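Batch manifest line 282
LIGAND: 2'-monophosphoadenosine-5'-diphosphate
JOB: complex structure
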Amino acid sequence: MTSVLGIVGHPLDHSVSVPMHMSAIFTLGIDYVYMSFDILPGNVAHAVVQFKKEHIKGFNVTIPYKEIIMPYLDGVDEYASRVGAVNTVNNENGRLKGYNTDGTGYVKSLREQTGLDPRGKKVLMIGAGGAAKAVAFSLLEAGVQTIIIANRTPERAESLCRHLKIYFSGASSQCIGMPDINTIDHKAINLVINTTSLGMKGAGDIDIDLTDFENDTVVSDIVYNPLETPLLKRAGQAGLKTHDGAGMLVYQGAESFRIWTGVQPPVDVMRQAVLRALQEHH
Ligand code: ATR
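JOB STATUS: finished
ARTIFACT:
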């Protein structure tokens, strides 16, 4: 019987996970299908019960459910539990277990695309949701020295700072108000990352002045649709290095695929499918 995989989130119009995973399934010729499950807020618990009943093999979790899905699962692996967010769920003999492949996917793509070594660096991160947690965790694991977090809801940034301090006592985690992103010393920042949905098709830009960063600063966006977000466009115009969200999408997806199927995924095929789907979406 065909094994069912999919993605849970809301909204999912921007997502290209279906063509990305279907390209891997077709290439390998394995008996799986990957589907989109656009679940309304309030229906998540019910959806998880249904997935179990239907013996779904696994699914990705995306905005805005990476944290709120956790209590509905039967277990969470140690790493995802430390991060405090789940982007991958695997059905293991009827038990739904949560994993997180976002952060490692992000850092791998960052290194590959920009050559930036996170060790000793100072980072300005916008956003404090589930994706932000994973990205911050992996950057600190890779040796980032200082992470400054700004979020629309300040309490959420404060809570993330407290969380990070528990695991990375040798590094500095600070939170600032959203308007303060234009008053801190930009010259000292090596990497700016957007982890919010701002910049995604139709959603607004981030209110950050990019004119006084050093030229070797990397501006990174985990939003991948469009590939060139308004933030990245302005960064390019300001002469800064840019890092788009496609690489993180591919690497987190490839690792999820390996967890579900036990098979090494064809990463290049997945990347081509993502780039093709994003062109067609435009
Ligand atoms: P995910 O789990 O995928 O990261 P999330 O936990 O809902 O999704 O996090 C979304 C992030 O985008 C949060 O930082 C959120 O800010 P709040 O904590 O204030 O909600 C941010 N975000 C979403 N829409 C936003 C908007 N219109 N303006 C500013 N920030 C926004």
